[in-house]
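Structure, all two chains, one model.
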Amino acid sequence: MPAQYPDKPSLSTTARMPVGDGPRPETPIVPKGSISGSALVAVVAIMTFLAALTTGAVVLIAGAASEWQSDVAREVTIQIRPGAGRDMESEVGKAVQLARAVPGIADIRPYSREESARLLEPWLGSGLALEDLPVPRLIVVKIAAGEAPDLAMLRKTLTERVSGASLDDHRGWIARMQVMGRSAVGVGIAILLLVLAATVLSVSFATRGAMATNQAVVEVLHFIGARDDYIAAQFQRHFLVLGLKGGVIGGGVALLLFAVASVIGDFFLGTATADQVTALFGSFSIGRLGYALVIAQIILVAAVTTWTSRRVVQQTLEAVE
Amino acid sequence: MIRFENVGLRYGLGSEVLRDLTFEITPHSFQFLTGPSGAGKTSLLRLLFLSVKPTRGLINLFGRDIAALDKDSLSALRRRIGIVFQDFRLLDHMTTYENVALPLRILGKKESSYRTEVVELLHWVGLGERMWALPPVLSGGEKQRAAIARAVIARPEILLADEPTGNVDPSLAQRLLRLFIELHKSGTSIVVATHDIALMDQFDARRLVIHDGRLHVYD
């Protein structure tokens, strides 16, 4: 018996266990691997997965809406109306030359008389005699990416030098597209906020459930004199690990899903189905912003789990005092 | 060491469970706290280990008025008090050794710095062969001794034990009493809450008797 203890009382004694000098791994103060802890990881994983999917969907919609707008905005149309004694082919040639002279134009494609007829076929039927109808001729002008040609000047020049010419920059369509795109993104963000709120609430409740099983640990630590900060730190560390574990599983699976979808999209590139899907949803890649948002959600969920555990520890300590 | 002056305690809006308690616990003293069930023994112990605050009166602990202390100061005072709970309150996921070492671990000490001390104490309370066992496989007596070892490992100035012999047979109860007496000899003040008259008759010590919420001291 060490000197600091009095003589040993008449309790049965035993042979001593070997005690080494090396460091011994310590059991964590907060028990690991409880059923409630596993349930919390599952809840965090599922909710992070759903939130990440919603985020990805919103990013895709926002990207697609932006692409629709820019596709339309990158195209302007020159229209040349027929008139009495007007040489349409010559006027078309002049308009093409004037458009080509404007910097920032990528491509100019005048529609031939036959192509113009085909455009009217859905309304007027086949076998048209265009000579009998005042059908205008169209020239599709594509603007180079990132360029902003002086369309006002082109419009002015065309009006002055090509008889019957006008320029349509699709402003009306673009305005409609913008409203539609903004609406779609707005609805998506509203859904995302709801999913995030549901995630935060469910993770918070699941954390409280997991903490309830640890109330005895909090009380024992408190009564043997542990400071409140020390107790809170033990639980914060434990629940941060659980939150990150669930978040990484849920967010990771979602990211994997987006990566697979992107690869599958690339694999079917050029097919009719892929073209249709691409027209609707863009490239099906959520890009850096999407990945960053999903990672931010993982961090958010882990932070909510950690903060809730701290709050529950504080409430438990207030209750036992 | 501990001084109560006109202390009263009530829970919520109920009537007072403890009334006008005025007494002192001196250093190196031994006392039994007794009284019929429901008389307020556990409530008085809770006041002593700062689990509840009095609704009136003054409690002076180690020279400090507890009403004027912040949370960290109260935690520091709790570290000077050892508590043995009636239901032991051992952490089931930790070995007996780790449970006993917990008061030192929360101070941030390294395991290697207190290992010998904890092992010696476990041998002293007769748990040398059970130090790596988890509490669920310990007997009632072993759990009680582990709880006592945890309460004294950090060398508290006072040890409070709530019905420490309530769950053990008379023979073990007598041995546990010997343990408290030995700790008392080493300089620790002891308060043993019990309604076991036979146990109290085995050692001549001061008796604090609670009846109807009032305290009667028999020196």
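Residues 262 and 283 of chain A are 7 Å apart (CA to CA).
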